[in-house]
């Protein structure tokens, strides 16, 4: 299978050390034995910190996005270092480059591409572009909940959802930016039109990414 894995920067850089990068590298190398892997890495706290500085300077949101994109590419480079020679040595800046780099049979790792596109969106567009079979979205929560699990003890995880149902949940008044992470609207639109199997799961344990290939875990977005 051709698989796109999106990994939130907050997961890789929860602690400022190499441990999570190395743990993911081991899992990804194991998956790469039987599958073709593309990875998109987010910015996490470093991106938010730098964006805050730039915003305080009075720069536009597009400039803030540009700074955030640069940070995602640094994070991608760090994961690339952890993967050693099984990863392609360059960081693609667009989807055509990502596809070209994959012809070397190396794992391709990238960060952001352009303003206003989140890690989720980049991962979904990349999956469509390279005709991937599956997207695995490694985030900081177990999956999609009917309400914020950080605030409500009775929040229930949704194991399966259609792209249309998910869009309604994301667009509802109950769901606001910064409550809990799952996926953004652009990514959902791409998933819907391309009908790519997408799983949202807790990436704090890298092994969960491999589990998603074998049995149900997290939330499945179906079409």
From TrEMBL:
<feature type="binding site">
    <location>
        <position position="48"/>
    </location>
    <ligand>
        <name>ATP</name>
    </ligand>
</feature>
<dbReference type="InterPro" id="IPR036393">
    <property type="entry name" value="AceGlu_kinase-like_sf"/>
</dbReference>
<comment type="subunit">
    <text>Homohexamer.</text>
</comment>
<keyword id="KW-0547">Nucleotide-binding</keyword>
<feature type="domain" description="Aspartate/glutamate/uridylate kinase">
    <location>
        <begin position="1"/>
        <end position="202"/>
    </location>
</feature>
<dbReference type="InterPro" id="IPR001048">
    <property type="entry name" value="Asp/Glu/Uridylate_kinase"/>
</dbReference>
<dbReference type="GO" id="GO:0005524">
    <property type="term" value="F:ATP binding"/>
</dbReference>
<dbReference type="InterPro" id="IPR011817">
    <property type="entry name" value="Uridylate_kinase"/>
</dbReference>
<dbReference type="Pfam" id="PF00696">
    <property type="entry name" value="AA_kinase"/>
</dbReference>
<keyword id="KW-0665">Pyrimidine biosynthesis</keyword>
<feature type="binding site">
    <location>
        <position position="145"/>
    </location>
    <ligand>
        <name>ATP</name>
    </ligand>
</feature>
<feature type="binding site">
    <location>
        <position position="44"/>
    </location>
    <ligand>
        <name>ATP</name>
    </ligand>
</feature>
<keyword id="KW-0808">Transferase</keyword>
<feature type="binding site">
    <location>
        <position position="43"/>
    </location>
    <ligand>
        <name>UMP</name>
    </ligand>
</feature>
<dbReference type="GO" id="GO:0044210">
    <property type="term" value="P:'de novo' CTP biosynthetic process"/>
</dbReference>
<keyword id="KW-0963">Cytoplasm</keyword>
<comment type="pathway">
    <text>Pyrimidine metabolism; CTP biosynthesis via de novo pathway; UDP from UMP (UMPK route): step 1/1.</text>
</comment>
<feature type="binding site">
    <location>
        <position position="148"/>
    </location>
    <ligand>
        <name>ATP</name>
    </ligand>
</feature>
<feature type="binding site">
    <location>
        <position position="65"/>
    </location>
    <ligand>
        <name>UMP</name>
    </ligand>
</feature>
<dbReference type="GO" id="GO:0006225">
    <property type="term" value="P:UDP biosynthetic process"/>
</dbReference>
<keyword id="KW-0067">ATP-binding</keyword>
<feature type="binding site">
    <location>
        <begin position="9"/>
        <end position="10"/>
    </location>
    <ligand>
        <name>ATP</name>
    </ligand>
</feature>
<comment type="similarity">
    <text>Belongs to the UMP kinase family.</text>
</comment>
<feature type="binding site">
    <location>
        <begin position="113"/>
        <end position="119"/>
    </location>
    <ligand>
        <name>UMP</name>
    </ligand>
</feature>
<feature type="binding site">
    <location>
        <position position="139"/>
    </location>
    <ligand>
        <name>ATP</name>
    </ligand>
</feature>
<dbReference type="GO" id="GO:0005737">
    <property type="term" value="C:cytoplasm"/>
</dbReference>
<dbReference type="InterPro" id="IPR011818">
    <property type="entry name" value="Uridylate_kinase_arch/spir"/>
</dbReference>
<protein>
    <recommendedName>
        <fullName>Uridylate kinase</fullName>
        <ecNumber>2.7.4.22</ecNumber>
    </recommendedName>
</protein>
<comment type="function">
    <text>Catalyzes the reversible phosphorylation of UMP to UDP.</text>
</comment>
<keyword id="KW-0418">Kinase</keyword>
<dbReference type="GO" id="GO:0033862">
    <property type="term" value="F:UMP kinase activity"/>
</dbReference>
């Amino acid at each position: 299978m051709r698989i796109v894995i999106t990994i939130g920067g907050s997961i890789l850089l929860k602690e400022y050390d190499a441990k999570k990068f190395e743990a993911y590298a081991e899992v990804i190398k194991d998956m790469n034995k039987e599958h073709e892997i593309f990875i998109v890495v987010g910015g996490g706290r470093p991106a938010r910190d730098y964006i805050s500085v730039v915003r305080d300077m009075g720069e536009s949101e597009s400039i803030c996005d540009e700074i955030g994109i640069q940070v995602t590419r640094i994070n991608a480079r760090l994961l690339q270092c952890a993967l050693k020679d099984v990863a392609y040595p360059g960081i693609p800046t667009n989807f055509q480059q990502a596809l070209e780099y994959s012809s070397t049979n190396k794992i391709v790792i990238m960060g952001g591409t352009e303003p206003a596109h989140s890690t989720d969106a980049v991962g979904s567009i990349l999956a469509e572009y390279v005709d991937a079979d599956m997207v695995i979205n490694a985030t900081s929560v177990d999956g999609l909940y009917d309400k914020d699990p950080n605030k409500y003890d009775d929040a229930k995880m949704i194991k399966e959802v259609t792209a249309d149902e998910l869009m309604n949940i994301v667009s509802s008044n109950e769901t606001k930016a910064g409550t809990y992470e799952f996926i953004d609207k652009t990514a959902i639109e791409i998933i819907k039109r391309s009908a790519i199997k997408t799983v949202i799961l807790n990436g704090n344990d890298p092994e969960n990414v491999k589990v998603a290939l074998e049995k149900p875990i997290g939330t499945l977005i179906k079409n």
